[in-house]
Design brief:
The longest helix is centred in the N-terminal third of the chain and has 22 residues, at about 30-50. Strand 12, helix 14 (about 335-340) and strand 13 form a beta-alpha-beta unit. By secondary structure, the chain is of the alpha/beta class. The chain has 22 helices and 25 strands. The model has no long low-confidence stretch (mean pLDDT about 95). Pfam families: Alpha-amylase. InterPro entries: Amylosucrase, GH, GH13_cat_dom, Glyco_hydro_b, O16G_dom_2. Its EC number is 2.4.1.4. It comes from Pseudarthrobacter defluvii.
């Protein structure tokens, strides 16, 4: 809600007087902070008023937030302030074609934060510029949800190390050109968080941090419109507390949803966010963004206020940690995913649709849905980027829109049943060795667990699996954005079928694709005669070509119709309007496919495959071998 000029000025003067009062009590004045206040305060004021303007204390809460931000800026290390200035001058730094992401669990990949530090030389060998360490904060066992049930945002899980070690690791990564990414689980906390413990004890202040009700009246009213996320864990969205009250728990019983209608919660979580930024974190993965705002009579997902909240958090960062970026995690309808992608909201976003449709294309040998998605849903606002991946720590869900599938004559429900059957080896001739997650044999509904290598058939036919692994990665490495590797995939690591023997993992099949560091496979990575070496060499070649090709920077993608349902095609425009274009072609079939000369009528005769450095004449057409991909340097006529 935009206020009048007078209202804006009155609010500004009120907040500045609070800031001046604190400075009189010892908070240092700072011209850089004041400069950013002048620029960003009107936005913050408007967003905060939109969320909390119906409260009589909203302006006091806003003043406290600004003072809190100024104090955080005062505590921010000088080297991070230097980074802030560099990234304010180059806000699109993450659009570089040199960006390459890796993601891992600290304990499973390196045992500890010191183990991660020891792997920095390998990260540089691979070419990483972005390292996402999966949830590493204090979380109770066994009720940790893989670290997503946070009991302290300011303490590292002691099995992994300390906050001082994380701060030191962030600095060493930064010195080696690698940005640190961590999860910000801000929809909920563990029920063992100090705030939750105080709420459970009846403290009225902290009871207001959560959605707690004395009886079932309002929980029943909310649940009339809210879907169950994990019904096998608990029915509905609320659980009964020991004292008889009811608390909102969207996911697991031990994860209590925060109440962002309370500005005290916003300020408390903003403080946690700025604390992490001051430890040297570059990017926060904003977990479960679709669920953060609740409103009676709605599904309580993807509400407009969720976007306002993210923008308000972003505005706080612009004041006190301007180098920090947000990455959205929203595994929802593609139209809803796109709404979180904005320079003012989440500058980065996972691309779950591209990921799912890569696997769909591998199963069907038909790229129609993937080509449609690249045409319709790939290009996003200026100043933002996709994080593109073949797989993540999570399961694979078939997130394509039914209406998109229907345009191609595909029944979405039936197609998802086929894909589930294919990837858990219940379909004749399947190469995949996935494991079902949340399987319902009666309906055929499930999601898919498995490493890239196992889903590509490494246990069935290693040679073909290597080709599928590289083919799958050729898409996120060339479509634009930040390509992301789940570390271990680059050496063809297969499923860990012993996952169920680990305490707390027996009920969650996703641990099958979160195996421990495969030392023997990494030792073979430089031998191209091995499957590990073949995968590693193929990915390294893509990385080398990408970093040396300016046309692969940014996110802009232009259609290219191949007129062949087995062959995906798209263009990446050159750095200059009349310069060379990169034309990517990928054959998802098990047979050779020939594209006739007329397919390439818009280009000059000669092309060079950047990956093999081979020259070809487009006037002769192009033949792609089974599972082959080409990145052609072409010149438009």
């Amino acid at each position: 809600m935009q206020g009048t000029v007078n209202e804006d000025e009155e609010a500004r003067q009120y907040v500045l007087s609070s800031l001046a009062r604190e400075r009189g009590l010892g908070l240092a004045a700072d011209p850089d902070f004041d400069r950013r206040m002048a620029r960003h305060f009107p936005t913050l004021r408007s967003l905060f008023h939109s969320l909390y303007g119906d409260r009589t204390d909203w302006l006091d809460q806003l003043s406290a937030l600004v003072v809190q931000s100024a104090a955080s800026w005062q505590e921010r290390p000088q080297e991070l302030k230097t980074l802030d200035a560099e990234r304010e001058a180059d806000p699109d730094w993450f659009q570089s074609n040199r960006m390459l992401g890796g993601v891992c669990y600290v304990d499973r990949y390196a045992e500890s934060l010191e183990g991660v530090r020891a792997r920095i030389p390998y990260f540089k060998e691979l070419g990483l510029t972005y390292l996402h360490l999966m949830p590493l904060f204090l979380a109770p066992e066994p009720h940790s949800d893989g670290g997503y049930a946070v009991s302290s945002y300011r303490e590292v899980n002691p099995k992994l190390g300390t906050m001082e070690q994380l701060r030191s690791l962030a600095a060493e990564l930064r010195d080696n050109g690698i940005s640190l990414v961590v999860d910000f689980i801000f929809n909920h906390t563990s029920d063992e968080h100090d705030w939750a413990r105080k709420a459970a004890a009846g403290d009225p202040e902290y009871s207001g941090y959560y959605w707690i009700f004395p009886d079932r009246t309002l929980p029943d009213a909310f649940e009339a419109d809210v879907r169950e996320i994990f019904p096998e864990n608990h029915p509905g969205s609320f659980i009964r507390m020991e004292d008889g009250r009811w608390v909102w728990a969207t996911f697991h019983t031990y994860q209590w949803d925060l109440n962002y209608s309370n500005p005290e919660v916003f300020r408390a979580m903003a403080a946690e966010m700025l604390f992490l930024a001051n430890q040297g974190v570059d990017i926060l993965r904003m977990d479960a963004v679709a669920f953060i705002w609740k409103q009676l009579g709605t599904p309580c997902e993807n509400l407009p206020q969720a976007h306002t909240l993210l923008r308000a958090f972003n505005a706080v960062c612009r004041l006190a940690a301007p180098a920090l970026l947000f990455k959205s995690e929203a595994i929802v309808h593609p139209d809803e995913v796109a709404l979180y992608i904005d320079r003012r909201e989440c500058q980065l976003s996972y691309n779950p649709l591209q990921m799912a449709l890569i696997w769909e294309s591998l199963a069907t040998r038909d790229v129609s849905l993937l080509a449609q998605a690249l045409h319709r849903r790939h290009n996003i606002p200026e100043g933002t980027a996709w994080v593109n991946y073949v797989r993540s720590h999570d399961d694979i869900g078939w997130t394509f829109a039914d209406e998109d599938a229907a345009e191609l004559g595909i029944n979405g429900f039936d197609h998802r049943r086929f894909l589930n059957s294919f990837y858990v080896n219940r379909f004749p001739g399947s190469f995949a060795r996935g494991v079902p997650f949340q399987d319902n044999p009666k309906t055929g509904d499930c999601r898919i667990s498995g490493t890239t290598a196992s889903l590509c058939g490494m246990e069935v036919d290693p040679a073909e699996a290597v080709e599928r692994i590289l083919l799958a990665h050729s898409v996120p490495f060339s479509t634009g954005g930040v390509p992301l590797l789940y570390l271990g995939d680059e050496v063809g690591q297969v499923n860990d079928y012993g996952y169920a023997s680990e305490p707390g993992h027996e009920e969650d099949s996703r641990w099958v694709h979160r195996p421990h560091f495969p030392a023997e496979q990494y030792a073979r990575r430089l031998d191209p005669a091995t499957p590990e070496g073949a995968v590693y060499a193929g990915l390294k070649r893509m990385i080398e070509v990408r970093t040396s090709t300016p046309g692969l920077a940014g996110t802009t993608l232009i259609d290219f119709g191949t007129n062949n349902r087995a062959v995906l095609g798209y263009q990446r425009p050159g750095a200059t309007e009349d310069g060379p274009t990169v034309l990517a072609l990928a054959n998802f079939s098990d047979d050779a496919q020939t594209l006739p000369a007329e397919t390439f009528g818009g280009f000059s005769r000669a092309a060079v495959d950047l990956l093999s450095e081979a020259t070809m004449q487009l006037v002769d057409g192009v033949t792609l071998l089974p599972r082959q991909y080409l990145w052609l340097r072409v010149t438009p006529r």
